[in-house]
């Protein structure tokens, strides 16, 4: 849980890859949850409610129904994400913090989509290439596991290299070439 000094430091440094300011909870709580999902797919982060884009603290009160709506919306993120939601008083004003942890359980998906941080903004991944790249960054797809459909083992692989590989790996010379790749 962040203390007053930590929060003031986040505010002083402004929005960025791991920090987002909101004056209030948007009427569509899902917009907030998209930001939270993006933080989860990054390195975690902090969403500060009650701070404007210029870093000015405005007094914000989150009623129980708003807090419940936020928690309910977060529960729609898959896999399960455990965020902290708490308030911190900065002088006579209250800032609400949603603390999104860093995790290795990526990708986090909300409403069928993957959201990521691009600098100080959250973006929905839209293309297959963006999604593939994200999975590679998360180490969920390894280069060695991606099939190379245009590779022909009989015309593209050097027979002597295959023979040397088999010897080095102590494989039987009778093992079919396809098995070695």
Automatic annotation (TrEMBL):
InterPro entries: Schlafen_AlbA_2_dom (IPR007421), Schlafen_AlbA_2_dom_sf (IPR038461). It comes from the Bacteria. Residues 15-125 form the Schlafen AlbA-2 domain. This is Schlafen AlbA-2 domain-containing protein. It comes from Bacteroides fragilis (strain YCH46). The lineage of its organism: Bacteria, Pseudomonadati, Bacteroidota, Bacteroidia, Bacteroidales.
């Amino acid at each position: 849980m962040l203390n007053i000094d930590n929060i003031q430091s986040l505010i002083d440094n402004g929005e960025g890859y791991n920090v987002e300011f909101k004056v209030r909870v948007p009427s569509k709580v899902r917009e907030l949850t998209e930001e939270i999902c993006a933080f989860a797919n990054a390195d975690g982060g902090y969403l500060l409610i009650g701070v404007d884009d210029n870093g000015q603290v405005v007094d914000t009160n989150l009623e129980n129904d708003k807090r419940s709506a936020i928690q309910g919306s977060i529960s729609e993120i898959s896999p399960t994400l455990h965020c902290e939601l708490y308030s911190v008083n900065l002088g006579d004003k209250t800032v609400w913090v949603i603390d999104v942890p860093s995790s290795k359980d990526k990708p986090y998906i909300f409403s069928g989509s993957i959201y990521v941080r691009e600098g100080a903004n959250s973006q929905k991944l839209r293309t297959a290439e963006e999604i593939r790249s994200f999975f590679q960054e998360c180490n969920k797809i390894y280069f060695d596991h991606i099939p190379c459909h245009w590779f022909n083992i009989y015309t593209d692989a050097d027979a002597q290299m295959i023979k040397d590989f088999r010897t080095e790996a102590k494989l039987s010379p009778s093992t079919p070439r396809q098995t070695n790749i």
